[in-house]
Amino acid sequence: MEGSLYLIRHGKAGAAQRGKNDFYRPLTEVGQTEWREFLQTMKPLIETEDLHVWTSPLLRAKQTTDIFNETFQIDSSTEKDFLVNGDLQACLKNLQELEQPFRVACIGHEPYLTAWLSELTGKRVKVDKGTILKIDFKDNRATLDWRQSSNRKSLFN
């Protein structure tokens, strides 16, 4: 398997509320603004040619995806249930089915993104809200190329 995978945690969302369906929890206005501003700084680092965008169907991830697609002028995205239930094997199967080398952005949630990063690269780094990580696959090995967060300075490996 060969390609690049961007793991993206959704922007800042409202607090979860007891008795309310978490599926519909939106990004806050501050979260939307911060995400838009952050993505402008990311333009030199995100390779968009032939980029597939996969998103969790939860509202906050879809809103994060919409802003991402708008910023990078990407026409469409695909909802993937494995970004809600954390099924890394399903994600890897989908990546293998793509033309190689692939380029995919996955917009999802914790604790799955941190677990995926650890399982794929051996790196144990918490994925904060509004964070993008680039993982490169070559010769069936995955390495963390870089990570950047909307609320922290650049972190390159």
Number of alpha- plus pi-helical segments = 5
* Global geometry: globular
What's the CATH first level? Answer: Alpha Beta
What radius of gyration results from the CA coordinates? 15 Å
Order of helices and strands: EHEHEHHEHEEE
Look up the CATH topology: Rossmann fold
Taking the alpha carbons of the first and last residues, their distance comes to 22 Å
How many strand elements? 7
| Estimated structural class | alpha/beta
Beta-strand proportion: 15-25%
CATH architectural group: 3-Layer(aba) Sandwich
CATH superfamily grouping: Phosphoglycerate mutase-like
- Strand sequence of the main sheet, in spatial order? 3-2-4-1-5-6-7
Helical amount: 25-40%
Task: Characterize the biggest β-sheet.
Answer: 7 strands, mixed
Name the poorly predicted regions. Answer: none
Average per-residue pLDDT, rounded, comes to 92
**Domain unit count:** 1
Protein name: Phosphohistidine phosphatase SixA
Pfam families: His_Phos_1 (PF00300)
Organism: Jeotgalibaca dankookensis
Topology:
Elements: E1 3-9, H1 29-42, E2 52-55, H2 59-72, E3 78-79, H3 82-85, H4 88-96, E4 102-108, H5 112-121, E5 131-138, E6 141-149, E7 155-156
Parallel strand pairs: 1-4, 2-3, 2-4
Antiparallel strand pairs: 1-5, 5-6, 6-7
